[in-house]
Amino acid sequence: YERFNRTSLEDLFIGVAPNCPYWSSFEGNVDHVRVYDRALTPDEILADIPDYSTTTTVSAYQTSPYAESTMGYDAVVSPTPPGGQVQFYLSRDGGPELHVGNPPVSEDGHASVNIHNGQNILPGAYVLRAEFMGYGPAQPSVSSSTAFTVLPIPTTVAVTAPENVHLPAAPIRLQALTGWGAGTGRTGEPG
Description:
The chain is mainly beta. The chain is 4% helix and 26% strand. The chain contains one helix and seven strands; from the N terminus they run H-E-E-E-E-E-E-E. The strands form two sheets. The protein has a four-stranded antiparallel beta sheet, with no helix packed on it. The chain is elongated, with a radius of gyration of 29 Å.
């Protein structure tokens, strides 16, 4: 929507720039053109915009696959609405959905929620669902969902080193791997 304040009786051109040396034309379609003899209020402009449908795409990301990681949820509403919020719902292991946030939709159509340091995130299989509730002419979208898994935090195991190996004084985290080193007498090689 473009606002023009015209006080002269010059010709009004739509879709072409007559003052441009090349008379460049707008490439595309121009529709819903209306000319008023007064300035419209913001509410009148919103009421005049035709309703349109939206879609919401959701994604989840983790800094690591373990319960201690920072997690984020992102939804993209397309086409970008003039405002509104996205509702995020999370369920674990087929349990009931919990409402985990309702951030506003940004100017680029994104709405995001971050959970830091695994706050209230337990190991399990999760389904994240996002739903744009609609705003002005932007209709509510059909909800979108994605699945992800959160693993338990690996256990720290005390290891005694042979006499000729020096371990650092700081604690280290080891992960046990099944099927490696068995039967060969050597570590780090397939058994």
